[in-house]
Design a protein that fits this description.
- The chain is α/β, with parallel strands linked by helices.
- It is built from four helices and nine strands, in the order E-E-H-E-H-E-E-E-E-E-H-E-H.
- It has a four-stranded mixed beta sheet, covered by helices on one side. A three-stranded mixed beta sheet has the order 1-3-2, covered by helices on one side.
- The chain is globular.
- 38% of the residues are buried.
Amino acid sequence: MSVELSLDGSGRYQVATGVGMLDHMLEQLAKHGLLDLTVDASGDIDRDPHHLVEDVGLVLGQALDRALGERRGITRFGHAVVSMDEALVLVALDLGGRAHAGIVFNFEREMLGQLPTENIGHFLAAFASEGRLNLHVRELAGGNDHHRIEAAFKGLALALRQAVALDERVGGEIPSTKEAL
């Protein structure tokens, strides 16, 4: 698996996992987060894409952690409430170094194309764990699973975009009263 991530990007992406819906969501993350993202991943998706989806989340989280370095000068917190048609999703995150994922969806279908909906939570938890971030994703309204997931990934993109932004008032300091993240 290969993942390249630039936080100072323009939203360019090249994504190939073999799971179309996962590719679509990673493209949303890059485009709306203004992240440059390249993902080349493969796995035994004929049986079950669970491990591939989770591994992409883990490696993407590791790439985020590396890109943030000591996390000096970043805004640190981000949030978004995103609508997509009837769906409404809240995403809030803290890049403070403590991993946690609180994910709440009310999916109606088991699958979206080749992607089991239960794997969305696994992806987000893996991403939060390896990215060392606190992530909350809450479905506030929805009727279509595709819209729920897409609103969540767009929300994640916007929240990350806020949180990784450099705040000139912070200078090069670590955004914590403990001076460590």
